[in-house]
Specification:
six-stranded antiparallel beta sheet, Ala-tRNA-synth_IIc_core, Alanyl-tRNA_Editing_Enzymes, 15 strands, zinc, 245 residues, metal-binding, Ala-tRNA-synth_IIc_N, alpha+beta
Length: 245
């Protein structure tokens, strides 16, 4: 059944109470609401724990979507017990992991500002993220890093604006990605805006992000790889280039 995905409106919500609405044969759990982000758009789903009334906890290995984007399935590790339908649980997101993914995902958006080419692919990770661009030009990774860190240091606000599916369809040019479909089908689409009045960037995205660029912290371009005649893969990592050793 459709879930109230609380994370869509509050990226910093790491715990909430929810009622079990379904338990699948493979152990997957559906809830009436959740603060767990489900795998989508290149960002991994959350992990964490579901706390039962007696204090015991069910460890989750992943969170994913069901047959549609309004269904979220919480998948326990194989050895974990199954809750009962109607049971009330307290959800606990692995916040340290989520926050790193939020910082990384925001860094990917900043990279798309520095490198204003169509995006052909992306994957957000805890230690390293990658963004692929449709480009043939040679570009210096240290110069890109310097521009990224300028945007981080300027501490621009990062926030959401909501538009309807119809508004997005009427303005297709705001989509930077060539291959990844924006998060449509729920009636509204979230635009991730960077800078006052979207002065730095505005992009449809259903992922989680920090609230200001300074939270991204020290990042750098570790490598730029040639993936075909007109495709370049940028690898973003936390820390400074000297951390590579």
């Amino acid at each position: 059944m459709p879930v109230n995905a609380l994370y869509r409106d509050d990226f910093y919500l790491s715990t909430c109470e929810a009622v079990v609405t379904a338990v699948h044969e493979d152990g997957g759990i559906e809830l009436d609401q959740t603060c767990f982000y489900a795998t989508s758009g290149g960002q991994p789903g959350d992990t964490g724990e579901l706390e039962r009334a007696d204090g015991t906890r069910i460890a989750l290995g992943q969170t994913k979507h069901g047959a549609s984007k309004d269904i979220v399935i919480h998948v326990p590790l194989e050895t974990e017990p199954r809750p009962d339908v109607g049971e009330t649980l307290v959800l606990h997101v692995d916040w340290q992991r989520r926050y790193r993914l939020m910082r990384m995902h925001t860094a990917c958006h900043l990279l798309s500002v520095v490198c204003s080419y169509p995006i052909t692919g992306a994957a957000v990770g805890e230690e390293e993220s990658r963004v692929d661009f449709d480009m043939s030009e040679t570009i210096d990774k240290d110069a890109v890093t310097a521009k990224l860190m300028e945007l981080v240091a300027e501490n621009h606000p990062v926030y959401l604006q909501w538009i309807t599916d119809e508004e997005l369809a009427a303005n297709p040019d705001i989509v930077k990605s060539k291959n990844v479909r924006p998060p449509i089908g729920l009636g509204r689409v979230s635009l991730v805006c960077i800078g006052e009045n979207s002065s730095i960037d505005s992009q449809p995205c259903g992922g989680t992000h920090v609230s200001e660029t300074q939270e991204v912290g020290q990042i750098h371009i570790a490598k730029i790889e040639k993936k075909g005649k007109e495709n370049r893969r940028f690898r973003i990592r936390f820390g400074t280039p000297g951390d590579e050793a």
